[in-house]
Write a structure and sequence with these properties.
16 helices; nucleotide-binding; 3 domains; Helicase, Ruva Protein, domain 3; Rossmann fold; alpha/beta; five-stranded parallel beta sheet; 387 residues
Length: 387
Protein backbone atom coordinates (compact mmCIF):
# COMPACT_ATOMS: atom_id res chain seq x y z
CA UNK A 1 0.00 0.00 0.00
CA UNK A 2 1.39 3.40 -1.03
CA UNK A 3 1.18 6.15 1.57
CA UNK A 4 0.62 9.66 0.12
CA UNK A 5 0.53 13.02 1.93
CA UNK A 6 -1.26 16.03 0.42
CA UNK A 7 -0.20 19.41 1.85
CA UNK A 8 -2.63 22.08 0.67
CA UNK A 9 -4.17 25.07 2.49
CA UNK A 10 -7.36 25.18 0.36
CA UNK A 11 -9.86 22.63 1.66
CA UNK A 12 -11.73 22.28 -1.66
CA UNK A 13 -8.51 21.38 -3.52
CA UNK A 14 -7.55 18.92 -0.77
CA UNK A 15 -10.88 17.14 -1.20
CA UNK A 16 -10.50 17.02 -5.01
CA UNK A 17 -6.98 15.58 -4.82
CA UNK A 18 -8.00 12.96 -2.24
CA UNK A 19 -10.96 11.96 -4.41
CA UNK A 20 -8.84 11.69 -7.59
CA UNK A 21 -6.17 9.55 -5.93
CA UNK A 22 -8.66 7.33 -4.09
CA UNK A 23 -10.57 6.64 -7.29
CA UNK A 24 -7.33 5.99 -9.20
CA UNK A 25 -6.12 3.25 -6.86
CA UNK A 26 -7.86 1.80 -3.82
CA UNK A 27 -4.47 0.81 -2.36
CA UNK A 28 -3.42 4.46 -2.00
CA UNK A 29 -3.54 5.54 1.65
CA UNK A 30 -4.02 9.31 1.42
CA UNK A 31 -3.48 11.72 4.31
CA UNK A 32 -3.80 15.53 4.34
CA UNK A 33 -2.25 18.54 6.05
CA UNK A 34 -3.64 22.09 5.91
CA UNK A 35 -0.28 23.87 5.85
CA UNK A 36 3.49 23.34 5.73
CA UNK A 37 4.03 23.28 9.49
CA UNK A 38 1.52 20.46 9.99
CA UNK A 39 2.81 18.71 6.87
CA UNK A 40 6.43 18.79 8.03
CA UNK A 41 5.44 17.35 11.42
CA UNK A 42 3.66 14.49 9.65
CA UNK A 43 6.73 13.82 7.48
CA UNK A 44 8.90 13.67 10.62
CA UNK A 45 6.62 11.08 12.23
CA UNK A 46 5.57 8.93 9.25
CA UNK A 47 7.09 7.06 6.32
CA UNK A 48 5.43 8.42 3.17
CA UNK A 49 5.99 7.16 -0.34
CA UNK A 50 5.00 10.48 -1.94
CA UNK A 51 4.16 14.06 -0.96
CA UNK A 52 2.05 16.47 -3.04
CA UNK A 53 2.73 19.98 -1.78
CA UNK A 54 1.27 23.41 -2.60
CA UNK A 55 3.81 26.23 -2.87
CA UNK A 56 1.85 29.26 -1.63
CA UNK A 57 0.75 28.50 1.95
CA UNK A 58 0.60 30.38 5.27
CA UNK A 59 3.14 29.82 8.10
CA UNK A 60 5.51 27.74 5.91
CA UNK A 61 5.47 27.79 2.13
CA UNK A 62 6.14 24.79 -0.10
CA UNK A 63 9.73 25.73 -0.93
CA UNK A 64 10.63 25.91 2.77
CA UNK A 65 8.91 22.59 3.37
CA UNK A 66 10.73 21.01 0.42
CA UNK A 67 14.12 22.03 1.82
CA UNK A 68 13.26 20.84 5.34
CA UNK A 69 11.73 17.54 4.16
CA UNK A 70 14.79 16.68 2.04
CA UNK A 71 16.95 16.98 5.16
CA UNK A 72 14.69 14.42 6.86
CA UNK A 73 14.48 12.01 3.90
CA UNK A 74 16.52 12.93 0.83
CA UNK A 75 14.88 10.17 -1.24
CA UNK A 76 11.23 11.12 -0.55
CA UNK A 77 9.55 12.11 -3.86
CA UNK A 78 7.88 15.52 -3.49
CA UNK A 79 5.66 16.93 -6.26
CA UNK A 80 5.10 20.70 -6.07
CA UNK A 81 1.72 22.20 -7.03
CA UNK A 82 1.02 25.90 -7.54
CA UNK A 83 -1.55 28.22 -9.01
CA UNK A 84 1.16 30.80 -9.52
CA UNK A 85 3.19 28.65 -11.88
CA UNK A 86 6.16 30.11 -13.65
CA UNK A 87 9.26 28.53 -15.14
CA UNK A 88 11.63 30.14 -12.62
CA UNK A 89 9.72 28.65 -9.68
CA UNK A 90 9.59 25.25 -11.37
CA UNK A 91 13.34 25.24 -12.05
CA UNK A 92 14.09 26.38 -8.49
CA UNK A 93 12.02 23.61 -6.87
CA UNK A 94 13.53 20.96 -9.17
CA UNK A 95 17.00 22.22 -8.27
CA UNK A 96 16.10 21.83 -4.59
CA UNK A 97 15.13 18.20 -5.17
CA UNK A 98 11.43 18.21 -6.15
CA UNK A 99 10.42 15.19 -8.21
CA UNK A 100 8.17 17.29 -10.48
CA UNK A 101 6.19 20.53 -10.68
CA UNK A 102 2.51 20.78 -11.65
CA UNK A 103 0.49 23.98 -12.20
CA UNK A 104 -3.09 24.49 -10.94
CA UNK A 105 -5.58 23.45 -12.03
CA UNK A 106 -3.68 20.19 -12.60
CA UNK A 107 -4.25 18.23 -15.77
CA UNK A 108 -5.75 14.92 -14.59
CA UNK A 109 -3.65 12.63 -16.79
CA UNK A 110 -0.43 14.52 -16.04
CA UNK A 111 -1.14 14.41 -12.30
CA UNK A 112 -1.83 10.66 -12.28
CA UNK A 113 1.18 9.87 -14.48
CA UNK A 114 3.41 11.93 -12.19
CA UNK A 115 2.06 10.13 -9.12
CA UNK A 116 2.65 6.70 -10.71
CA UNK A 117 6.18 7.63 -11.81
CA UNK A 118 7.07 9.03 -8.39
CA UNK A 119 5.78 5.91 -6.62
CA UNK A 120 7.67 3.67 -9.09
CA UNK A 121 10.86 5.59 -8.31
CA UNK A 122 10.28 5.22 -4.57
CA UNK A 123 9.70 1.49 -5.02
CA UNK A 124 12.98 1.15 -6.93
CA UNK A 125 14.83 3.05 -4.19
CA UNK A 126 13.43 0.71 -1.53
CA UNK A 127 14.26 -2.39 -3.59
CA UNK A 128 17.77 -1.08 -4.17
CA UNK A 129 18.26 -0.57 -0.41
CA UNK A 130 17.10 -4.14 0.28
CA UNK A 131 19.44 -5.48 -2.40
CA UNK A 132 22.35 -3.49 -0.96
CA UNK A 133 21.64 -4.90 2.50
CA UNK A 134 21.69 -8.44 1.08
CA UNK A 135 24.97 -7.75 -0.71
CA UNK A 136 26.43 -6.19 2.43
CA UNK A 137 25.35 -9.23 4.45
CA UNK A 138 27.00 -11.51 1.89
CA UNK A 139 30.31 -9.70 2.38
CA UNK A 140 30.05 -9.38 6.16
CA UNK A 141 33.27 -9.96 8.10
CA UNK A 142 32.49 -12.40 10.93
CA UNK A 143 34.39 -12.35 14.21
CA UNK A 144 35.30 -10.15 17.15
CA UNK A 145 38.91 -11.09 17.84
CA UNK A 146 41.33 -8.23 18.41
CA UNK A 147 43.09 -8.84 15.09
CA UNK A 148 39.91 -8.88 12.98
CA UNK A 149 38.51 -5.87 14.86
CA UNK A 150 41.65 -3.95 13.86
CA UNK A 151 40.83 -4.77 10.22
CA UNK A 152 37.25 -3.52 10.70
CA UNK A 153 38.50 -0.28 12.24
CA UNK A 154 40.85 0.26 9.29
CA UNK A 155 37.97 -0.31 6.85
CA UNK A 156 35.82 2.32 8.59
CA UNK A 157 38.67 4.86 8.51
CA UNK A 158 39.66 4.26 4.90
CA UNK A 159 36.41 3.41 3.07
CA UNK A 160 35.13 6.98 2.58
CA UNK A 161 38.42 8.12 1.07
CA UNK A 162 39.76 7.44 -2.42
CA UNK A 163 43.07 6.18 -1.03
CA UNK A 164 44.44 3.08 -2.76
CA UNK A 165 44.57 0.02 -0.55
CA UNK A 166 46.80 -3.05 -0.68
CA UNK A 167 45.31 -6.02 1.17
CA UNK A 168 47.74 -8.74 2.22
CA UNK A 169 47.31 -12.12 3.88
CA UNK A 170 47.40 -15.86 3.18
CA UNK A 171 44.99 -17.56 0.76
CA UNK A 172 41.51 -18.14 2.13
CA UNK A 173 41.56 -15.42 4.80
CA UNK A 174 38.85 -13.28 3.19
CA UNK A 175 40.81 -10.52 1.46
CA UNK A 176 37.97 -10.14 -1.06
CA UNK A 177 35.53 -9.46 1.81
CA UNK A 178 37.71 -6.56 2.93
CA UNK A 179 37.74 -5.20 -0.65
CA UNK A 180 33.94 -5.42 -0.88
CA UNK A 181 33.51 -3.74 2.50
CA UNK A 182 35.77 -0.88 1.38
CA UNK A 183 33.64 -0.41 -1.76
CA UNK A 184 30.24 -0.86 -0.09
CA UNK A 185 31.03 1.73 2.59
CA UNK A 186 32.52 4.22 0.12
CA UNK A 187 30.94 7.12 -1.77
CA UNK A 188 31.43 5.02 -4.92
CA UNK A 189 29.07 2.27 -3.75
CA UNK A 190 26.42 3.16 -6.36
CA UNK A 191 28.98 2.62 -9.14
CA UNK A 192 30.38 -0.78 -10.20
CA UNK A 193 32.95 -2.81 -8.33
CA UNK A 194 34.86 -4.87 -10.89
CA UNK A 195 36.95 -7.83 -9.75
CA UNK A 196 39.96 -9.10 -11.69
CA UNK A 197 41.80 -12.26 -10.64
CA UNK A 198 45.23 -11.54 -12.09
CA UNK A 199 46.41 -15.11 -11.46
CA UNK A 200 43.56 -16.62 -13.49
CA UNK A 201 44.17 -14.64 -16.70
CA UNK A 202 46.92 -15.75 -19.13
CA UNK A 203 49.82 -13.30 -19.36
CA UNK A 204 49.14 -12.61 -23.05
CA UNK A 205 45.53 -11.62 -22.32
CA UNK A 206 45.89 -9.59 -19.10
CA UNK A 207 46.43 -6.24 -20.86
CA UNK A 208 43.37 -6.73 -23.06
CA UNK A 209 41.34 -7.78 -20.00
CA UNK A 210 42.37 -4.70 -18.01
CA UNK A 211 42.49 -2.02 -20.70
CA UNK A 212 40.35 -3.40 -23.54
CA UNK A 213 41.29 -3.64 -27.21
CA UNK A 214 40.22 -2.40 -30.61
CA UNK A 215 39.11 -4.57 -33.50
CA UNK A 216 42.10 -6.10 -35.29
CA UNK A 217 44.56 -5.50 -32.44
CA UNK A 218 45.37 -9.22 -32.54
CA UNK A 219 44.10 -12.34 -34.31
CA UNK A 220 41.05 -13.01 -32.13
CA UNK A 221 40.10 -9.33 -31.67
CA UNK A 222 37.04 -9.41 -33.95
CA UNK A 223 35.44 -6.33 -32.35
CA UNK A 224 36.20 -3.51 -29.92
CA UNK A 225 36.08 -4.50 -26.26
CA UNK A 226 35.95 -2.45 -23.06
CA UNK A 227 38.54 -3.27 -20.44
CA UNK A 228 37.88 -3.70 -16.73
CA UNK A 229 39.19 -0.21 -15.94
CA UNK A 230 36.61 1.37 -18.25
CA UNK A 231 33.80 -0.81 -16.91
CA UNK A 232 34.75 0.26 -13.36
CA UNK A 233 34.80 3.99 -14.20
CA UNK A 234 33.51 6.09 -11.25
CA UNK A 235 33.62 2.91 -9.16
CA UNK A 236 36.23 0.49 -7.84
CA UNK A 237 38.50 -2.05 -9.48
CA UNK A 238 39.77 -4.91 -7.31
CA UNK A 239 43.00 -6.42 -8.60
CA UNK A 240 43.19 -9.73 -6.75
CA UNK A 241 46.50 -11.67 -6.70
CA UNK A 242 48.29 -8.67 -8.19
CA UNK A 243 51.62 -10.32 -7.37
CA UNK A 244 51.01 -12.63 -10.35
CA UNK A 245 50.64 -9.80 -12.88
CA UNK A 246 53.22 -9.59 -15.70
CA UNK A 247 55.77 -6.76 -15.65
CA UNK A 248 54.40 -5.29 -18.91
CA UNK A 249 50.86 -5.15 -17.46
CA UNK A 250 52.29 -3.66 -14.25
CA UNK A 251 53.79 -0.82 -16.29
CA UNK A 252 50.40 0.01 -17.81
CA UNK A 253 48.64 -0.17 -14.43
CA UNK A 254 51.28 2.22 -13.05
CA UNK A 255 50.53 4.68 -15.87
CA UNK A 256 46.79 4.43 -15.19
CA UNK A 257 47.42 5.26 -11.53
CA UNK A 258 49.86 8.09 -12.24
CA UNK A 259 48.03 9.81 -15.09
CA UNK A 260 44.43 8.65 -14.76
CA UNK A 261 44.38 7.42 -18.37
CA UNK A 262 44.46 4.08 -20.16
CA UNK A 263 45.03 3.02 -23.76
CA UNK A 264 43.24 0.07 -25.32
CA UNK A 265 45.46 -2.56 -26.93
CA UNK A 266 45.96 -1.58 -30.57
CA UNK A 267 44.69 1.99 -30.09
CA UNK A 268 46.53 5.32 -30.10
CA UNK A 269 44.12 7.54 -28.16
CA UNK A 270 44.07 7.82 -24.37
CA UNK A 271 40.89 7.34 -22.34
CA UNK A 272 40.46 9.22 -19.05
CA UNK A 273 39.27 7.13 -16.11
CA UNK A 274 38.19 7.81 -12.54
CA UNK A 275 38.66 4.54 -10.67
CA UNK A 276 39.60 3.63 -7.13
CA UNK A 277 42.11 0.79 -7.10
CA UNK A 278 42.16 -1.88 -4.40
CA UNK A 279 44.70 -4.67 -4.77
CA UNK A 280 45.33 -7.90 -2.88
CA UNK A 281 48.07 -10.49 -2.75
CA UNK A 282 49.17 -13.52 -0.75
CA UNK A 283 52.78 -12.90 -1.75
CA UNK A 284 55.48 -10.84 -0.03
CA UNK A 285 55.75 -8.07 -2.61
CA UNK A 286 58.99 -6.74 -1.13
CA UNK A 287 60.56 -10.14 -1.83
CA UNK A 288 59.06 -10.06 -5.32
CA UNK A 289 60.59 -6.60 -5.84
CA UNK A 290 64.01 -7.79 -4.68
CA UNK A 291 63.85 -10.70 -7.14
CA UNK A 292 62.77 -8.48 -10.04
CA UNK A 293 59.22 -9.80 -10.43
CA UNK A 294 57.34 -6.75 -9.17
CA UNK A 295 57.83 -3.04 -9.80
CA UNK A 296 58.80 -1.07 -6.70
CA UNK A 297 57.21 2.13 -8.06
CA UNK A 298 53.90 0.30 -8.56
CA UNK A 299 54.10 -1.13 -5.04
CA UNK A 300 54.41 2.36 -3.56
CA UNK A 301 51.48 3.57 -5.69
CA UNK A 302 49.27 0.72 -4.51
CA UNK A 303 50.31 0.56 -0.86
CA UNK A 304 49.02 3.94 0.27
CA UNK A 305 47.08 2.00 2.91
CA UNK A 306 48.14 -1.49 3.94
CA UNK A 307 45.58 -3.86 5.48
CA UNK A 308 46.81 -7.27 6.61
CA UNK A 309 44.13 -9.91 7.05
CA UNK A 310 45.15 -12.38 9.78
CA UNK A 311 45.23 -16.13 9.26
CA UNK A 312 42.57 -18.22 10.99
CA UNK A 313 45.25 -19.67 13.28
CA UNK A 314 45.89 -16.11 14.49
CA UNK A 315 42.24 -15.56 15.39
CA UNK A 316 41.15 -18.91 16.82
CA UNK A 317 38.70 -17.23 19.21
CA UNK A 318 36.54 -16.44 16.13
CA UNK A 319 36.20 -20.11 15.14
CA UNK A 320 33.04 -20.85 17.22
CA UNK A 321 31.13 -17.89 15.77
CA UNK A 322 32.38 -18.71 12.26
CA UNK A 323 31.15 -22.31 12.63
CA UNK A 324 27.71 -21.05 13.71
CA UNK A 325 27.64 -18.55 10.84
CA UNK A 326 28.56 -21.15 8.21
CA UNK A 327 26.13 -23.72 9.64
CA UNK A 328 23.28 -21.19 9.36
CA UNK A 329 24.36 -20.10 5.88
CA UNK A 330 24.69 -23.65 4.55
CA UNK A 331 21.33 -24.68 6.03
CA UNK A 332 19.65 -21.75 4.25
CA UNK A 333 21.33 -22.66 0.94
CA UNK A 334 20.25 -26.30 1.24
CA UNK A 335 16.78 -25.56 2.64
CA UNK A 336 17.43 -27.65 5.76
CA UNK A 337 17.25 -27.05 9.50
CA UNK A 338 20.39 -25.68 11.12
CA UNK A 339 22.55 -28.40 12.65
CA UNK A 340 24.03 -27.72 16.07
CA UNK A 341 27.71 -28.37 16.81
CA UNK A 342 28.47 -29.75 20.27
CA UNK A 343 30.95 -27.91 22.49
CA UNK A 344 33.44 -30.79 22.18
CA UNK A 345 33.15 -30.66 18.37
CA UNK A 346 33.73 -26.90 18.33
CA UNK A 347 36.70 -27.17 20.72
CA UNK A 348 38.28 -29.87 18.57
CA UNK A 349 37.85 -27.81 15.40
CA UNK A 350 39.26 -24.74 17.16
CA UNK A 351 42.44 -26.69 17.93
CA UNK A 352 43.14 -27.71 14.31
CA UNK A 353 45.87 -26.18 12.17
CA UNK A 354 43.88 -24.26 9.56
CA UNK A 355 46.38 -23.91 6.72
CA UNK A 356 43.51 -23.18 4.29
CA UNK A 357 42.05 -20.57 6.65
CA UNK A 358 38.39 -19.44 6.42
CA UNK A 359 37.81 -21.17 3.09
CA UNK A 360 38.96 -24.51 4.52
CA UNK A 361 36.85 -24.09 7.66
CA UNK A 362 33.71 -23.49 5.59
CA UNK A 363 34.37 -26.60 3.50
CA UNK A 364 34.85 -28.70 6.63
CA UNK A 365 31.65 -27.34 8.21
CA UNK A 366 29.71 -28.17 5.03
CA UNK A 367 31.20 -31.67 4.94
CA UNK A 368 30.24 -32.28 8.59
CA UNK A 369 26.69 -31.05 8.01
CA UNK A 370 26.28 -33.45 5.07
CA UNK A 371 27.95 -36.50 6.62
CA UNK A 372 27.43 -35.99 10.36
CA UNK A 373 24.46 -36.74 12.62
CA UNK A 374 21.61 -34.47 13.65
CA UNK A 375 24.02 -32.83 16.08
CA UNK A 376 27.65 -32.62 15.01
CA UNK A 377 29.67 -34.44 17.67
CA UNK A 378 33.34 -34.82 18.48
CA UNK A 379 33.28 -38.28 16.85
CA UNK A 380 31.86 -36.73 13.65
CA UNK A 381 34.75 -34.27 13.58
CA UNK A 382 37.29 -37.08 14.07
CA UNK A 383 35.65 -39.17 11.34
CA UNK A 384 34.97 -36.54 8.66
CA UNK A 385 37.12 -33.48 9.32
CA UNK A 386 40.38 -35.24 8.52
CA UNK A 387 43.42 -33.03 8.55
Amino acid sequence: MSKILIIEDEEAIRRVLVSILSEENESYQVEVAEDGVVGLEKIKNNDYDLVLCDIKMPRMDGVELLEAAKKIDSELPIVMISGHGDMETAINTMRLGAFDYISKPPDLNRLLNTVRNALDKKKLVVENKILKKKVSKKHEIIGNSESINQVKVMIEKVAKTDARVLITGPNGTGKELVAHQLHNKSDRSNAPMVEVNCAAIPTELIESELFGHVKGAFTSAVKDRLGKFEVANKGTIFLDEIGDMSLSAQAKVLRALQEGVITRVGADNDIKIDVRVIAATNKNLKTEIAEGRFREDLYHRLAVILINVPSLNDRREDIPVLIEHFATQIAAEQGNAVKHFSNDAVNLLAAYDWTGNIRELRNVVERLIILGGNEISESDVKAFASK
